[in-house]
Protein backbone atom coordinates (compact mmCIF):
# COMPACT_ATOMS: atom_id res chain seq x y z
CA UNK A 1 0.00 0.00 0.00
CA UNK A 2 1.51 3.31 -1.09
CA UNK A 3 -1.27 5.64 -0.01
CA UNK A 4 -0.84 9.18 1.16
CA UNK A 5 -4.07 10.98 2.03
CA UNK A 6 -4.66 14.72 2.10
CA UNK A 7 -7.55 16.79 3.40
CA UNK A 8 -9.31 18.87 2.34
CA UNK A 9 -9.38 18.27 -1.43
CA UNK A 10 -10.37 21.86 -2.09
CA UNK A 11 -10.05 24.98 0.06
CA UNK A 12 -11.15 28.55 -0.52
CA UNK A 13 -9.95 31.12 2.00
CA UNK A 14 -9.75 34.84 2.42
CA UNK A 15 -6.52 36.66 3.04
CA UNK A 16 -7.30 37.11 6.74
CA UNK A 17 -8.30 33.49 7.40
CA UNK A 18 -6.35 30.80 9.21
CA UNK A 19 -6.65 27.29 7.85
CA UNK A 20 -4.71 24.04 7.92
CA UNK A 21 -3.91 21.33 5.40
CA UNK A 22 -3.52 17.79 6.64
CA UNK A 23 -1.51 14.89 5.28
CA UNK A 24 -1.39 11.33 6.57
CA UNK A 25 0.49 8.15 5.66
CA UNK A 26 0.57 4.72 7.30
CA UNK A 27 3.45 3.21 5.37
CA UNK A 28 5.97 3.67 8.17
CA UNK A 29 7.75 6.33 6.16
CA UNK A 30 10.00 8.64 8.16
CA UNK A 31 10.35 11.52 5.69
CA UNK A 32 7.44 13.75 4.71
CA UNK A 33 7.29 16.66 2.29
CA UNK A 34 5.19 19.66 1.31
CA UNK A 35 5.27 20.88 -2.27
CA UNK A 36 3.54 23.78 -3.98
CA UNK A 37 2.57 23.43 -7.61
CA UNK A 38 1.29 26.14 -9.92
CA UNK A 39 -0.60 25.23 -13.09
CA UNK A 40 1.54 23.67 -15.84
CA UNK A 41 4.68 23.86 -13.67
CA UNK A 42 6.63 21.20 -11.78
CA UNK A 43 6.19 20.89 -8.01
CA UNK A 44 8.34 23.19 -5.88
CA UNK A 45 9.67 21.83 -2.62
CA UNK A 46 8.61 23.81 0.46
CA UNK A 47 9.48 21.73 3.55
CA UNK A 48 10.93 18.36 4.46
CA UNK A 49 10.52 16.57 7.77
CA UNK A 50 12.88 13.73 8.46
CA UNK A 51 12.25 11.61 11.54
CA UNK A 52 9.76 14.27 12.70
CA UNK A 53 12.34 17.05 12.59
CA UNK A 54 12.27 19.87 10.07
CA UNK A 55 15.28 19.23 7.85
CA UNK A 56 14.63 21.47 4.85
CA UNK A 57 12.84 24.82 4.61
CA UNK A 58 13.20 26.21 1.12
CA UNK A 59 12.97 29.84 2.27
CA UNK A 60 9.19 29.64 2.48
CA UNK A 61 7.38 32.76 3.80
CA UNK A 62 6.36 32.55 7.45
CA UNK A 63 2.67 32.67 6.52
CA UNK A 64 3.18 28.94 5.84
CA UNK A 65 3.90 27.01 9.02
CA UNK A 66 4.55 23.25 8.91
CA UNK A 67 4.01 20.88 11.79
CA UNK A 68 4.75 17.18 12.19
CA UNK A 69 2.86 15.94 15.29
CA UNK A 70 4.00 12.33 14.75
CA UNK A 71 5.62 10.16 12.12
CA UNK A 72 2.32 9.60 10.28
CA UNK A 73 0.95 13.13 10.21
CA UNK A 74 2.03 16.33 8.56
CA UNK A 75 0.15 19.62 8.74
CA UNK A 76 0.57 22.90 6.93
CA UNK A 77 -0.88 25.88 8.78
CA UNK A 78 -1.87 28.82 6.61
CA UNK A 79 -2.30 32.40 7.79
CA UNK A 80 -2.61 35.72 5.99
CA UNK A 81 -2.06 34.20 2.58
CA UNK A 82 -1.90 36.17 -0.64
CA UNK A 83 -3.79 35.46 -3.89
CA UNK A 84 -0.52 34.34 -5.47
CA UNK A 85 -0.41 31.50 -2.94
CA UNK A 86 -3.31 29.87 -4.79
CA UNK A 87 -1.96 26.55 -6.03
CA UNK A 88 -2.09 22.78 -5.67
CA UNK A 89 -0.39 21.73 -2.44
CA UNK A 90 1.04 18.24 -2.56
CA UNK A 91 2.20 16.13 0.31
CA UNK A 92 4.62 13.25 -0.19
CA UNK A 93 6.42 10.68 1.92
CA UNK A 94 9.41 8.41 1.55
CA UNK A 95 11.06 5.73 3.67
CA UNK A 96 13.76 8.15 4.71
CA UNK A 97 16.53 5.57 5.02
CA UNK A 98 18.19 6.10 1.66
CA UNK A 99 15.17 4.59 -0.11
CA UNK A 100 14.17 7.79 -1.69
CA UNK A 101 11.13 7.16 -3.88
CA UNK A 102 8.57 9.76 -2.89
CA UNK A 103 4.89 8.82 -2.89
CA UNK A 104 2.47 11.67 -3.31
CA UNK A 105 -1.01 12.37 -2.06
CA UNK A 106 -3.84 13.67 -4.25
CA UNK A 107 -3.21 17.27 -3.25
CA UNK A 108 -5.26 20.16 -1.93
CA UNK A 109 -6.35 22.80 -4.43
CA UNK A 110 -6.16 26.10 -2.60
CA UNK A 111 -7.77 29.32 -3.76
CA UNK A 112 -6.99 32.52 -1.87
CA UNK A 113 -9.42 35.37 -2.47
CA UNK B 1 22.34 24.96 -15.43
CA UNK B 2 19.14 22.96 -15.37
CA UNK B 3 19.49 19.70 -13.50
CA UNK B 4 16.67 18.04 -15.47
CA UNK B 5 15.61 19.00 -18.98
CA UNK B 6 12.48 17.82 -20.72
CA UNK B 7 12.43 19.32 -24.20
CA UNK B 8 8.97 18.17 -25.30
CA UNK B 9 6.25 20.41 -23.83
CA UNK B 10 3.57 18.35 -25.58
CA UNK B 11 3.34 15.05 -27.42
CA UNK B 12 0.63 13.20 -29.31
CA UNK B 13 0.51 9.43 -29.77
CA UNK B 14 -2.00 7.13 -31.36
CA UNK B 15 -3.66 4.62 -29.05
CA UNK B 16 -1.81 1.25 -28.94
CA UNK B 17 1.42 2.77 -30.27
CA UNK B 18 4.63 3.23 -28.28
CA UNK B 19 5.89 6.66 -27.28
CA UNK B 20 9.20 7.96 -25.89
CA UNK B 21 9.36 10.93 -23.55
CA UNK B 22 12.77 12.55 -23.37
CA UNK B 23 14.69 13.48 -20.25
CA UNK B 24 18.31 14.61 -19.90
CA UNK B 25 20.03 15.33 -16.62
CA UNK B 26 23.07 17.16 -15.38
CA UNK B 27 25.09 16.05 -12.38
CA UNK B 28 28.73 15.46 -11.55
CA UNK B 29 27.90 13.16 -8.65
CA UNK B 30 28.46 9.45 -9.46
CA UNK B 31 25.52 8.48 -7.25
CA UNK B 32 22.07 9.61 -8.31
CA UNK B 33 18.56 8.34 -8.88
CA UNK B 34 16.17 9.09 -11.68
CA UNK B 35 12.39 8.95 -11.41
CA UNK B 36 9.38 9.34 -13.64
CA UNK B 37 6.01 10.50 -12.38
CA UNK B 38 2.63 10.75 -14.09
CA UNK B 39 0.23 13.53 -13.16
CA UNK B 40 -3.32 13.24 -14.53
CA UNK B 41 -5.58 16.28 -14.53
CA UNK B 42 -6.85 15.21 -11.09
CA UNK B 43 -3.50 16.36 -9.67
CA UNK B 44 -2.02 13.33 -7.97
CA UNK B 45 1.62 12.58 -8.82
CA UNK B 46 1.87 8.85 -9.52
CA UNK B 47 5.28 7.18 -9.27
CA UNK B 48 6.03 5.14 -12.39
CA UNK B 49 9.63 3.97 -12.47
CA UNK B 50 13.07 4.40 -10.89
CA UNK B 51 16.62 4.01 -12.20
CA UNK B 52 19.68 4.16 -9.99
CA UNK B 53 22.97 5.40 -11.40
CA UNK B 54 24.71 2.13 -10.58
CA UNK B 55 21.97 -0.09 -11.96
CA UNK B 56 23.34 -2.19 -14.80
CA UNK B 57 20.04 -2.86 -16.47
CA UNK B 58 17.34 -0.52 -17.68
CA UNK B 59 14.36 -0.39 -15.34
CA UNK B 60 11.02 -1.78 -16.47
CA UNK B 61 7.60 -1.70 -14.82
CA UNK B 62 4.81 -3.21 -16.87
CA UNK B 63 4.29 -1.03 -19.96
CA UNK B 64 6.89 1.48 -18.74
CA UNK B 65 10.58 1.16 -19.39
CA UNK B 66 13.42 3.58 -18.84
CA UNK B 67 16.00 3.90 -21.59
CA UNK B 68 19.04 4.80 -19.47
CA UNK B 69 22.05 6.07 -21.44
CA UNK B 70 24.57 7.10 -18.83
CA UNK B 71 27.20 8.51 -21.17
CA UNK B 72 24.58 10.73 -22.80
CA UNK B 73 23.01 11.57 -19.43
CA UNK B 74 19.59 10.65 -20.70
CA UNK B 75 16.77 8.74 -19.04
CA UNK B 76 13.94 8.54 -21.52
CA UNK B 77 10.61 6.98 -20.58
CA UNK B 78 9.13 4.53 -23.06
CA UNK B 79 5.43 3.73 -22.81
CA UNK B 80 4.42 0.74 -24.88
CA UNK B 81 0.90 0.12 -26.22
CA UNK B 82 -0.43 3.55 -25.23
CA UNK B 83 -3.88 3.73 -23.67
CA UNK B 84 -6.30 6.64 -23.43
CA UNK B 85 -5.69 6.68 -19.69
CA UNK B 86 -2.03 7.49 -20.32
CA UNK B 87 -3.01 11.05 -21.27
CA UNK B 88 -1.38 13.13 -18.55
CA UNK B 89 1.60 15.30 -17.64
CA UNK B 90 4.82 13.36 -17.15
CA UNK B 91 7.66 14.62 -14.97
CA UNK B 92 11.23 13.38 -14.86
CA UNK B 93 13.04 13.93 -11.55
CA UNK B 94 16.49 13.35 -10.12
CA UNK B 95 18.00 12.89 -6.69
CA UNK B 96 21.78 13.37 -6.54
CA UNK B 97 24.41 12.28 -4.07
CA UNK B 98 23.41 11.75 -0.46
CA UNK B 99 20.73 14.42 -0.64
CA UNK B 100 17.97 11.85 -0.55
CA UNK B 101 15.23 14.31 0.29
CA UNK B 102 15.64 16.82 -2.53
CA UNK B 103 14.27 16.10 -5.98
CA UNK B 104 14.97 18.16 -9.07
CA UNK B 105 12.00 18.09 -11.43
CA UNK B 106 11.91 18.76 -15.14
CA UNK B 107 9.33 21.07 -16.66
CA UNK B 108 7.15 18.17 -17.75
CA UNK B 109 5.73 16.73 -20.98
CA UNK B 110 1.99 16.72 -21.67
CA UNK B 111 1.08 13.50 -23.42
CA UNK B 112 -2.16 13.18 -25.35
CA UNK B 113 -3.24 9.75 -26.53
CA UNK B 114 -5.57 9.85 -29.55
CA UNK B 115 -8.21 7.17 -30.11
Question: How are the SSEs placed, and which strands pair?
Answer:
The complex is a heterodimer of chains A (113) and B (115).
Chain A: E1 4-7, E2 10-13, E3 18-25, E4 31-37, E5 44-50, E6 53-57, E7 64-70, E8 73-79, E9 87-94, E10 103-104, E11 108-112
Parallel strand pairs in A: 2-11
Antiparallel strand pairs in A: 1-3, 3-8, 4-5, 4-9, 5-6, 7-8, 9-10, 9-11
Chain B: E1 4-5, E2 10-14, E3 19-21, E4 24-25, E5 32-39, E6 46-52, E7 60-61, E8 64-69, E9 74-79, E10 88-96, E11 104-105, E12 109-114
Parallel strand pairs in B: 2-12
Antiparallel strand pairs in B: 1-4, 3-9, 5-6, 5-10, 7-8, 8-9, 10-11, 10-12
Give an overview in words.
The complex is a heterodimer of chains A (113) and B (115). The mean pLDDT of chain A is 94. In chain A, a hairpin with a 6-residue loop joins strand 4 and strand 5. Chain A is globular, with a radius of gyration of 13 Å. In chain A, strands 2, 4, 5, 6, 9, 10 and 11 form a seven-stranded mixed β-sheet that branches. Chain A has a four-stranded antiparallel β-sheet with strand order 1-3-8-7, with no helix packed on it. Chain A has strands at residues 4-7, 10-13, 18-25, 31-37, 44-50, 53-57, 64-70, 73-79, 87-94, 103-104, 108-112. Chain A is 0% helix and 57% strand. Chain A is an all-beta fold and 113 residues long. The termini of chain A are far apart. With 115 residues, chain B is mainly beta. Chain B is built from no helices and twelve strands. Chain B has strands at residues 4-5, 10-14, 19-21, 24-25, 32-39, 46-52, 60-61, 64-69, 74-79, 88-96, 104-105, 109-114. In chain B, strands 2, 5, 6, 10, 11 and 12 form a six-stranded mixed β-sheet that branches. In chain B, a hairpin with a 2-residue loop joins strand 7 and strand 8. The model of chain B has no long low-confidence stretch (mean pLDDT 95). The A-B interface holds A 2, 31, 33, 40-43, 45, 48, 50, 55-56, 88, 90, 92, 94, 96, 98, 100-107, 109 and B 33, 35, 37, 42-47, 50, 89, 91, 95, 100-103, 105-108.
